[in-house]
Specification:
An eight-stranded parallel β-sheet has the order 7-6-5-4-3-2-1-8. The relative contact order is 0.11. It contains 13 helices and 30 strands. By secondary structure, it is α+β, with helices and mostly antiparallel strands. Helix 11 (268-280) packs parallel to helix 12. The structure holds alpha-D-galactopyranose.
């Protein structure tokens, strides 16, 4: 919680959707990317499959295979060397040099080879005295020379790791390399790999010029072991993403780490789930398998154009968990820039199960007809609003859903208390969302008068994270505002949440992290949105005591 303290002092920020939303004005002001990256990077990296067992033949064969398999046409562009490409010491001039046994032709010749294939080449270093494998020189205090070296070789991407840092501050180390890369004048994509330490998304990531940042420890070649220490399972990485939505966007991608599809540790069903969720959350898609022996099932997963289109589409918010139905059944969704919504029905349980949500809950209310495209089956169907499927254990069903048919009328002009309106849909962490009462956790109406800090409110919504309330606006409302905070009914120093408002799924604005104490006013312009979603997300410390009030919640139409 200590790391979050500065956020408590920050005012509520209404973030324009296309901006890398940050919670702290300082980070936004300094955020000039090394190289603009408007869609999540796609490519291949040597680490997951090969570790230190790399050489120039492998990299050339991988580039060959990437093109031969048509992965380049699917969008995979970067061929990235990870750790262990280096000689154990710098040369007589103090410059980095490739390992002369593994890379006898040199890194420049390898870059030329990759470029001649129409691909780009990425490289790895660490913001420390040595790389993570320990034996190789790091770039700390050599940033300018090393960046010049990379540019001279024709490098197009740098993955910059965090080992052997000497505990020097993150911002100093990562910004030094960001500035050095900028100074070379070569467009080099700058991917930070500091394992989510010290919240790179809200602080030093954008301020260093980075355009993506790892959010967790390293991925492992398995489904789940319930742990957040390295190596992590696919599902455990997914669980660490909830609440990071405000920080994602063009030039600011939350990196869920490289893919394990094709490495044998996941079933095909699990691989489809892994790939679907990484795509839904706009993660960089960096292949981690042996492309020379790509099996047909993995190839079909990694090149599904309709799933790749979800990853590459910025509709104003990365995917997020819309609903945890309990028993390992979840609904995740993200808005698409054409006004459709992609939903992933995710079954983490041990048996096949039916997962059901609605178009209204997905932010697509107000109509009487929808078309559903099943992105894995390649089939189309229609619905009057129910979105439901039988989902295999450890699997997903992924739908892209368009509103069709009649759309309900606009909301008449006026100022409304949200607690007096009919809602399209609602979901809540404990009990139902309450009208003009706090959240009592169980039956409807079991709360108390709404109270944030020492102020009592007659009107508003009493929720419990994770929570969402969906409203119909009809395109004619201009503004939503509310006093937001943790209800004073919880014990002092308990509860931490973030409030966010989405219009047609796009992030309109969000609060600083709110803990026990006075309310802040959150005001957002709702533009021409048809629907509004009021969302409360757990502050990434578990949702115990997260009684969250939208007090005096008003809609102006
Ligand atoms: C760290 C990174 C990994 C990989 C290894 C290489 O653990 O997080 O992705 O680059 O270092 O040593």
């Amino acid at each position: 919680m200590l790391a979050a303290l500065p956020l408590l002092l920050a005012a509520v920020i209404a973030a324009p959707p296309a901006v890398a939303a940050t919670g702290t004005p300082a980070a936004t002001a300094a955020a000039v990317p090394v190289t603009p990256v408007l869609t999540p990077p796609m490519g291949w990296n040597s680490w997951n499959k090969f570790g230190c067992n790399i050489n120039e033949a492998l990299i050339r064969e991988t580039a060959d295979a990437l093109v031969a398999n048509g992965l380049d046409r699917a969008g995979y562009q970067y061929v990235n060397l990870d750790d262990c490409w280096l000689a154990t010491s710098r040369d007589a001039n103090g410059d980095l040099q490739g390992d002369s046994v593994r890379f006898p032709s040199g890194i420049k010749a390898l870059a030329d080879y990759v470029h001649a294939k129409g691909l780009k080449i990425g490289i790895y270093e660490s913001a420390g005295t040595a790389t993570c494998m320990g034996a190789y020189p790091g770039s700390l205090d050599h940033e300018q020379a090393d960046a010049r070296q990379f540019a001279g070789w024709g490098i197009d991407l740098l993955k910059y790791d965090n080992c052997n840092s000497g505990n020097r501050p993150y911002l100093n180390r990562f910004k030094a390399m960001g500035d050095a890369l900028k100074a070379t004048g070569r467009p080099i994509v700058y991917m930070l790999c500091s394992w989510g330490k010290d919240a790179p998304w809200s602080t030093y990531g954008p301020a260093s010029g980075g355009t993506s940042w790892r959010t967790t420890e390293d991925i492992g070649n398995f489904w789940s072991n319930g742990s957040q220490s390295t190596p992590m399972g696919v599902v455990d990485i997914l669980d660490a993403q909830a609440g990071l939505e405000p920080y994602s966007g063009p030039n600011a991608w939350n990196d869920m780490d490289m893919l394990e599809v094709g490495n044998g540790g996941l079933t095909d069903t699990e691989s489809r789930a892994h790939f679907s969720l990484w795509s839904l959350l706009n993660s960089p898609l960096i292949l981690g398998n042996d492309l020379r022996t790509l099996d047909p099932a993995s190839e079909a997963i990694l090149t599904n154009p309709e799933v790749l289109a979800v990853d590459q589409d910025w509709g104003g918010s990365q995917g997020r968990r819309m609903r945890d139905l309990g028993g390992g059944l979840q609904v995740w969704a993200k808005p698409m820039s054409d006004g459709s919504v992609t939903a992933v029905l995710f079954n983490r349980s041990a048996a096949t199960a039916t997962i059901t949500t609605s178009a209204a809950e997905l932010g697509l209310g107000g109509s009487d007809a929808y078309t559903l495209r099943d992105l894995w089956a390649g089939t189309d169907s229609t619905s009057t609003g129910t979105v439901s499927a039988s989902v295999p254990s450890h699997g997903v069903v992924m739908y892209r859903i368009h509103r069709a048919g009649t759309t309900a009328a606009a909301r008449p002009a006026g100022t409304y208390q949200v607690s007096d309106l009919a809602w399209l849909a609602s979901g809540n962490g404990w009990g139902p969302v309450e009208r003009d009462r706090s959240n009592g956790e169980q039956a409807a109406g079991d709360g108390r008068a709404l109270k944030i800090g020492s102020t009592t409110y007659a009107k508003g919504l009493g929720t419990h994270a994770d929570s969402a309330v969906h409203l119909w606006l009809g395109g004619t409302c201009s503004q939503f505002s509310a006093d937001v905070g943790i209800d004073s009914e919880v014990h002092a120093n308990h509860g931490s949440v973030r409030f966010a408002a989405y219009g047609d799924g796009r992030l309109l604005g969000y609060s600083a992290l709110k803990t026990y104490g006075p309310a802040t006013r959150l005001t957002v312009a709702t533009g021409g949105a048809l629907t509004l979603e009021l969302r409360v997300t757990d502050g990434r410390d578990g949702n115990a005591y997260d009684h969250a009030d939208w007090a005096n919640a008003q809609l102006t139409c």
